[in-house]
Design a protein that fits this description.
about 290 residues; mainly beta; globular
């Protein structure tokens, strides 16, 4: 199948254009299909909402991830509402084994017929991340830098970033107050020269003990507060509750099975349990 695609591309009468990424998309497709046929490792099924009247309304979702070699992972995702009976996306991830850490993930989006490439590279303690999108004229969709420094014995991690699509510049700073507590400040703006356009949030993450942690987030502009509580359960399972007073409550509850996790998700408007939606997700480790 892959060789047939290659021959078709080679024998095409159309002229090659610098922005033509058809061959690139087919390479991603071949790698994902070939690997999934031989090296299945994990599979995930997600029912987003049980309060529905048809199979289409349930918005079934699924993901498969396959480790081909020590350096290459491939897979794909499915979503009923967006892709019907076709894959939503196919991806291939490559990780370097020697030298500076480098990770490259190529994704083909079936519905939009576009390709994306995410690159993460670390050099001398600085991490560079960039996202490339074939659907964009400028090709680069986002970029960021991350650097951790020590200030008076405490680690401070700073991440400036820029989204070329929305033209939003942002910066994230995380201060490790202690081994149990971090403070995170997020600021973003689509016009850095205008102070009124700056929005942000302040998050305090605190581990109460080995199993329980809390994480309130304060909006600097609206004054809203989001509360988050996490309790670690057996294995990789955990109970996570997020609440925004006056808006909604979200609950995710993991239950460790013999071959993976069951996750039950509840989304409920604040003070209106009759409006709640319930979803289930099962991750299989094969």
């Amino acid at each position: 199948f892959c060789s047939a695609l290659y021959k078709t591309e080679q024998n095409s009468e159309r002229p090659v254009h610098p922005t033509n990424n058809t061959m690139f998309k087919k390479v991603i497709l071949c790698l994902a299909l070939a690997s999934a046929a031989k090296y299945d490792r994990s599979f995930e099924v997600n029912v987003k909402d049980t309060s529905v009247s048809s199979i289409e309304a349930a918005n079934l979702q699924g993901e498969v991830e396959t480790k081909v070699t020590d350096q290459i992972t491939a897979g794909g995702s499915y979503e009923q509402t967006s892709a019907k009976f076709a894959p939503k996306s196919l991806f291939t991830r490559w990780v370097s084994k020697n030298g500076d850490p480098l990770e490259v993930t190529a994704t083909y989006n079936v519905a939009s017929n576009s390709a994306e490439v995410d690159v993460e590279y670390e050099k001398s303690g600085t991490t560079l991340e960039a996202s490339l999108d074939s659907a964009r004229r400028g090709f680069v969709s986002a970029a960021s830098l991350t650097r951790t420094v020590s200030v008076e014995g405490r680690d401070v991690t700073v991440t400036p970033a820029y989204d070329f699509g929305s033209k939003v510049a942002s910066v994230k700073a995380v201060l490790g107050l202690s081994s149990d507590t971090d403070v995170e400040l997020n600021l973003d703006s689509n016009d850095v020269s205008n102070r009124e356009s700056i929005d942000g949030s302040l998050t305090i993450s605190h581990a109460i003990d080995a199993k329980n942690s809390i994480k309130p987030t304060f909006s600097l502009k609206s004054g809203d507060v989001d509360y988050e509580f996490t309790r670690k359960l057996d294995g990789d399972a955990e109970l996570n509750v997020k609440a925004t007073p006056g808006k909604d409550v979200n609950i995710d509850w993991d239950d460790a099975g013999s071959n993976g996790l069951w996750t039950t998700s509840v989304r409920m408007p604040w003070g209106k349990p009759v409006g709640a939606s319930i979803g289930f997700k099962r991750k299989f480790t094969l």
